[in-house]
Amino acid sequence: MIKSKPSNLLFLLTILVVFACSTPKEQSKELIEKPVVRAVWSKEQANQWYEKWGWLRGANFNPSSAINQLETWQAESFDLETIDRELGWAAGIGMNSMRVYLHHLAWEQDPEGFKNRMEQYLKTADGHGIATMFVFFDDCWNNTYAAGPQPEPKTGTHNSGWVQDPGQLIYDEPQLSEQLEAYVKDVMKHFANDERIVLWDVYNEPGNSGYGNRSMPLLTSIFQWGREVNPSQPLSAGVWNSSLTDLNKYQLANSDVITYHNYEDSAHHAAMIDTLKQYGKPMLCTEYMARTRNSTFADIMPMLKAHNIAAYNWGLVAGKSNTIYAWDTPIASGEEPEVWFHDIFRKDGSVYSQEEVDQIKDLTMN
């Protein structure tokens, strides 16, 4: 037994006396107002968790039949047949994990139905030997959205229908924060011990779309909510832009494991790895691979495997998201670009590049 020092014992007794002298009502109020919040994982805890997974490799997955997260998860457009087929293709080239975006509005329409669809997705993915990383919030692309049928893709335009979450609405209606807290906690509690889930990616690219530090309050809130739930899976928010100093500092200090995005060439990517190694925690690259920016499977994936860094490229099957087109170079005619920006498969299951697929399989199956 470890004995307390006299000063520590005196302090502990004082606290116990104060608590004992308070009324049950006051004690109850104190516990309600100050929920238990777990600490950020230590290096040892994080590395012990990572050991059980081996090398994670996969893609950012949205079924080709959905233009955005709402079309993926709303009851009327949830397409389990396409999900099953396309995850089968991923498993066929040795992928074992997917990063998948959620959206609070789909939950708001029908919380129980939403979680049921998540369960159907997880069961299907697990059947293919694929684990899942779920993403809650997102600052990228369109800042407004609506429930119901989603817009058709704009011809030749990258991610024309992708939507932020919560986007502009959090600034127009600050009270939305209460609903977002209910959403995050409901979903996370429901799946808190689900071994099919790798990680909760709490906020994709905070500060994007010109928000900058305006995203800090929501970022700090979701980490707080997540720690109050205390799931068995780690919490993280990936760093992606070195100029967002305050956000980066907070994300790295509060993430249980290190996640990051890099769409640059191998030299720049290697430099980022060297910078993040100092934290001594497992690293997961949750977005990479943009062919016209020299971020390719051939150059980046072997490096990630060599460092045991999880590798999630953007895009699996070319579809309504139009991510075969580059971010800022739409093709008005809708003609297929000579060099795809993202994605691996066409909707019929054929591949963009057999050479690339052979390279991926060589890394994942050997």
Automatic annotation (TrEMBL):
Domain Glycoside hydrolase family 2 catalytic: 169-296
Domain of life (superkingdom): Bacteria
A GO MF label: hydrolase activity
Cross-referenced InterPro entries: GH, Glyco_hydro_2_cat
Keyword entries, A-Z: Hydrolase, Signal
Keyword Calcium carried by entry: no
Pfam families recorded: Glyco_hydro_2_C
Signal peptide: 1-20
Protein name per the record: Glycoside hydrolase family 2 TIM barrel-domain containing protein
